[in-house]
Amino acid sequence: MRFVPFWFDQVISAADLESAVELKANITADVCIIGGGFTGLWSAIQIKQQAPEHNVVVIDKGLCGQGASGRNGGAMLTWSTKFLSLEKFFGTANAVKLVKQSEQAVYDIQTFCKTHDIECELRLDGAFYTASNRAQLNALAPVMSHLDLHGINQWQDVDDSQLQNKTGSSANLQAAFTQAAGSIQPAKLVRGLKRVAQKLGVKVYENTNMTSLLEGQPSTVTTDSGQVVADKVILAVNAWLPKLFKQFNNKVVLVSSDMVITKPMPQKLKALGLDHGAPVIDSRIFVNYYRTTQDGRLMLGKGGNHFSFNNKVTDKFDKESDYKSILDNSLTHFFQNHQFEIERTWTGPSDRSVTGFPFFGVMPTTKNIFYGAGYSGNGIVQSYLGGKILSSLVLDKTDKWSHHPMVDNQLASFPPEPFRTPGAFIVRNGIRRKERAEDRGLKPNRLDNWLAKFSGSAAKVDMN
Question: Which of 43, 62, 145, 385 could form a disulfide with 66 if both were Cys (CB 3.0 to 4.6 A apart)?
């Protein structure tokens, strides 16, 4: 049995374990999807909705959502704060469209969950981006200015008199708020997507580990106990993509996102003003983010802790976090003398691309194997869009999704090993020193400021 992250403790029952169907036969399919997380299940659902006659199979080596999809921070965030990067990589017109698409996706997911009775603690209570030390003040101002210029700014400044009450912490010196955001219980969403997919006729096989993929027309997916011969294959494995196809090994770096959650304490949260589901995210490079749960817990996470050599998904990602002291320091930064009772910690792999944005496409050799990855820690909302892109590509459609700006890009590369991971740790440590100094109101040294400039291509991660 694989590691079960915290959210699964609230979802998975003995009946779920017993009802998980393993592939133990040789079958055929129009489409075989490798990976039963958000990207794989959104793709399966959207293929069946558009082409009900297609025979769609999903396989997952564990339980659906047991990877990154079911263990993330649960923050539903958009691309609006990344407008300048979107503009740099995709052009102004596309940047505007991508922000609008991501914001609309927030409401589309809400509608989908209501329509299909998925109870995943979805709360569209917005989100706060804050400055949690003086060095972060006005960090979002350039982005807001450009959003204003193009008439797509849904952010508003939080009044100083309401700042602490809204964000729950006196460490936040400034904040902006958007309504187009929220939070979910991620394991409940992914298990709900599995149920909807099966209701539509998708065959879902769990505890089914792929051992090989033979490219061809059709392609053959071999598992421990069976085989799927499929006309088309979707790789929706995110952090595991470099393991399957070596050409992606320098296109992403695997970095941990680590989380801590308290025991229920609804009265304490209410006293802090945290009786809402809006995530609070600060403006440092290795962001701190926190939010509440419906049962009155406080969850805090932090990205950019462990970098995996040669992108190997090691056991380090499948256990309690090794960075509890760092998580404790972040809790103390926001909630001094908090005395919160901690329930547990956990971690998960995030596949950071060079741009910080996901990428989608088709393998150039066989033209029937499709992929989507690189969410860079910001994937709950974006995987819904990924499902639209991959379903359109698989169904050979000619529309805005098959011609999406994030399809078939010339992907930039990180440095190769053995230089990449040691370099990432050097940059990480410089950023940590820089941000510790800024939290104390001190001026960082010149070396650490210089190292931090490499964060855009080597380190920065988000939270979901």
Answer: 62
